């Protein structure tokens, strides 16, 4: 727990003990769990996206283990109160908070190596996962943001810079402990409740139950290579399609990204599971001919810190969230974009009055063979469109929606549930495609009363 968590948590506790008397439901809940029951004034310490800091939960529970989680779920069913799991609080749509009771899983943040696997708590931050595994010469495929909570990431699939080699985060989950919506504590794997095991690997967080522990396959690795190429803005109509033609068909040892920013910035960068010499030999000519190409070799932990933007920062700086105000949308691409699509991206970024970006992640490799409910097997890359702002949101949201609409002719209409988008009307098809009907059937079996319901809940 960092200093801010301690101060905020202590303040909630004091307020909670005083205000719990005003609501008999909260007073009852306090008697059912061993962890603290807190009554916050707002959600400012619960969410990464400050658009949702004004939301007022009924209470926040910091559970001490699965029994506390089970008690809250059973209480929620009985009282008709929505139960809201929160791992790291990074939900793009603010679904880490709400008007019900938030189960703040940051207390379930342990990691323990067990042979070739690790037992990981849902509330641990990715920085701490990577650091603990690197100390034992291993890693898992996961995201790049160091403060994201492991639970939400894994339940939505989880794509990161080792995913073309190792698959999604959820592909590497071999077992889970789950408190289901009907109040049971289940041990779930490929042979025990296999339907739920399938759904929890890519079916999205807060849909079927609350995972209190993951057992995850660990892959040995000590170092890797990286590259970064910076281009003139005018080169985008050539560079972006060239990258898209290459990114999904190259060796699975590569994971690469293409980034375009509102400051007229254009970069292609990524990492390689192997030596710098082998990487340099495998890079395409549009990268190797770049005059501003940089390459290097580093420990695997330093690779993760590089992409997290905190290489050279202290551990505390890397693992402490820095809340911001933003909105995002996502798309998927199955064939390289034509010139007019790239120029449309540039045009929208050039007219952005503030900070905006389009980030493209390479797919292919092991991402064509995911096993759970994650559906985006055929994509060559994903797109994430982002707008950041201070003050009034209207202009930024209009810009983001305009960019998203302009790209619609060139994308599939699918979207990544971990970039959950409250604007989407066709979210069932966009997130889950043909898997949606099966996911609904499984949800009815394990959460018949929709204890975990939310606006885009299965």
Summary of the model, kept short:
With 458 residues, the chain is of the alpha+beta class. Helix content is 32%, strand content 22%.
What is this structure's SSE topology?
Blueprint: H1 3-19, H2 24-32, E1 37-38, E2 59-61, H3 66-79, E3 83-86, E4 101-104, E5 111-114, E6 117-120, H4 126-134, E7 138-139, H5 150-155, H6 163-166, E8 173-180, E9 185-189, H7 194-200, E10 209-217, E11 219-220, E12 223-231, H8 236-247, E13 254-261, E14 265-272, H9 276-282, H10 285-288, E15 294-299, H11 300-308, H12 315-319, E16 326-333, H13 339-350, E17 355-362, E18 381-388, H14 394-407, H15 427-432, H16 436-446
Parallel strand pairs: 2-4, 3-4
Antiparallel strand pairs: 1-2, 5-6, 6-10, 7-11, 8-9, 8-10, 12-14, 12-15, 13-14, 13-17, 16-18, 17-18
Q: Can you give a write-up of this model?
A:
With 458 residues, the protein is α+β, with helices and mostly antiparallel strands. The two termini are 33 Å apart. 52% of the residues are buried. It contains 16 helices and 18 strands. The longest helix has 17 residues, at 3-19. The strands form four sheets. The protein has a seven-stranded antiparallel sheet with strand order 15-12-14-13-17-18-16. A five-stranded antiparallel sheet has the order 5-6-10-8-9.
Tell me the radius of gyration: 22 Å
Low-confidence stretches are 1-20
- Which word captures the global form? globular
Give the strand order, joined by hyphens, for the main sheet. Answer: 15-12-14-13-17-18-16
Structural category is alpha+beta
